[in-house]
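pipeline stage [seq->struct] | target=CCDC144C-like coiled-coil domain-containing protein | organism=Marmota monax | residues=424
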Amino acid sequence: MKRLGMDTVKYQNQEKKCFENTEILREKNTSLPWTQKLNEETLMEIFQDNEQLGIWKVENTLQNFTPESEKQSTERPETDVKSHPARSGPAPPHQGESPTPKRNLELAFQRGRDKDFSSQEKKNIDVSNLNGSSEIPSQQVPKSEVKTSDLENELHQTRVMTLATDQVNRQLKQRQCQLKEMEHRYQNEERKRNEHLRKQEASKEKVSKLQRETTLHEDQLHYYQNKGENKMDGIINVQTQFYDVIKKLQARNDRYGLMLGNKYLELINETNHLKEQLDQYGKEKAEEMDDLTTKMKNASSKHLHLRTNYDCFMQNLFFIKSIQDTFEKIERNQKKLEENVVNFPRHTRSTRIERGQGVWWECDIEHRARWDLEEKQKQTQEASPEITEPFRKTNFTSIKIQMELRISHLESELKILRNATERI
């Protein structure tokens, strides 16, 4: 309904615009005949002026070429002059008649051409008259002098007239240019008039189309109004049904609201219970964290104790290795000494027998060797208890293996405790 109302308003506005355009075109069409009349009047005035100019030119030619001695030479121009008005001066159209502008222009061009032709003929006649006057015999000198003076006067008059004719020709050319401009204006006005007529016809067609469309829209409005009335009855029935459905839905919503309220209370109780469980779980977690922290502290203390034991054990190992090295050196030295002791008497005997020394020297050497061996044995015996006692007290290899296992076990426990703390 709203769209139809908007469409009707649009079409009414378009009709108003079309009527305004048609009124403007009518005013222009009424003004066109008046402009045409003005143009025709100006053309008639121009034609009359041209005719008067032609008459004046003919009179001037008659006045210039009327001497008695040159009647034979003037017969031809008089006949031309007599024939010229017949050619160049056609009868003006009657006031009752309305000649077309094209016909009037053609007549004006013909008159201008005839006038140019007559002026050229006049000039030729003047030249022939002068030539004839120059061929007069020498016996008639006084008459010829008189005639020459007359001819000079006539020549002066002809020159003046030629200047006047030139001016008239210029004016004619100007008038012809004005006529051409008037023709162009008239043609343009005719074109404009035709365009206005076309626009008027197109606007009339548009108006007729708009009127048809408005009638169609009015019919559609009546149709839709009737249809809308029928729909209103249907809408009223639908509204009653809709209200019934709304009442049923409200009852269902009330029931559903009660159900939701009960469920909401149950959910509140469940959330409270879950909160209590979460609190308990948090307490348990805190206790577990405390236990884990205590375990971590104990494990760290154990780890430190084991670390100190391990460091002491490593120091003992280094000390034992150094003792073993010294013991091995002592054994090597002892073996060398024993070998020297065994080989020394033989060597000394051979040398002393050769040199012739006494036996007493051998006894002295043996005594010294034995004394050296006894001292070395004492040293080894003093060092051996220091070495054997640690081996007796601690089985080094077994203790080392046990310590490594214990350290690995403690490191695994530390990793477990760290993972537990990170999760928490």
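stage status: PASS
auto-comment: The chain has six helices and no strands. The domain at 288-423 is CATH 1.10.287 (Helix Hairpins).
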